[in-house]
Every structure is written in C-alpha cells, then in structure tokens.
Amino acid sequence: MTQPQPRRATVHRETAETRVHVELVVDGTGRAEVSTGVGFLDHMLTAFARHGRFDLRVEATGDLHVDAHHTMEDVALVLGQAFDEALGDRGGIVRMGEATVPLDEALVHTAIDISGRPFAATAFDFVGERIGEAPTEMVPHVLRSFATAARITLHVRQLAGANDHHIAEAAMKSLGRALDAATATDARLGGAVPSTKGTVTT
Questions:
Q1: Distant-in-sequence, close-in-space partners of 65: CB < 8 Å, separation ≥ 6
Q2: N or C: which terminal CB in the chain sees fewer CB atoms within 10 Å?
Q3: Per-residue model confidence as pLDDT tens digits over 126-151
Q4: Is the model's pLDDT at 188 over the cut of 90?
Q5: How far apart are CA 182 and CA 184, in angstroms?
Q6: Is CATH 1.10.760.10 correct for 8-189?
C-alpha cells in the first residue's frame, strides 16, 4: 500500500519591513527551529509546533528598531499561508477541532473550522502591556493574521488566568492541539472534502 505523502509547504515572503521564511510539515512530530528576533514569539511558536505535532522551521528578520508589530504580524501571515498550501483541497480531513488547555491558573479554549472562510474572534484579559519584548495586544493580532492567511474560522477564548505569559502560552498550545485535531485525516471520508457544497477552499 502506498503511504500518503506528508503534507508540507515552504513559503518565503520579503517586504521592505520583514523577511520571513517558513517550512512546515503538518504530519510531523513537533520539532521546531524558530528564530524571529522576538524571544517570546519564538517561545510561542515552539509550543504551538510541539503541541500540534507539526514540524516547523521559521526564520525571520524585521524592523525591530521600530517595534515588534511587523515581524509578529508577518510571521503569522506566512505561517497561515504555509498551512493553507500544505492542506491543499482539504480532502479527507476532519475539518473541525477544539482544545481547552490549562497552564497553572490560566485556561484557554480554542475552536477551529478549516472552512475556507477567514474569521477570528478572540477574548483575552491581559494585565500588562508586554510579555518580554512582545506587546500583549499582538497576541490576538497574531491569531487573526494567522486565521486570515490560513483561511480558517478561529475562536480563542480565555476562560481563566492572571499571568499574561501563562494566558498567551495556553492560547498557543490550545491552537496547536485544535489545529492538529482539525487537520487529522478521517479514513471514512475516502479523501472526500468534508463539506456539503463540495469545497472548503472557495
């Protein structure tokens, strides 16, 4: 029996503000090599890959002398594009997934529909303005940017938490686990697209 080829993508994006290179294997083991110049973003993407069982390599440079906004946003966009490309026509996938992840006092729930319809709703109650060098306001922005480029419907909600680092990390872990569940293949579909309209890409 022929083994299915790993779902993978390589995406490179370069602008006057950033240079981002992402290599993704959806059917991976959780290995990550991440270097963005924003330490907390590196930590979050590593946790995302580990808990989603994705193999991920991210190399990014950006105008950090301005702030972290462009780098964090563009990394999220390129990562989302990589998922979009790696999943192809989405044939045979479960399509929807969810995960609730605790981290000490923090608890975050994520629900995903790989629908072809870009949408993100987030609800966080951060205490401070920054986590390391990353603005806390960029956490929901990163999630929205990822959902837009990946063409998924995404809901992320903080259920409990007082420590900003714990809240953001629980969010990324739950995103990884929910996306792992949604991208899993269902043999019962026989490769069919999981939609009554026959497509989840348009």
A1: none
A2: N
A3: 999 999 999 999 999 999 999 999 99
A4: no
A5: 6
A6: no
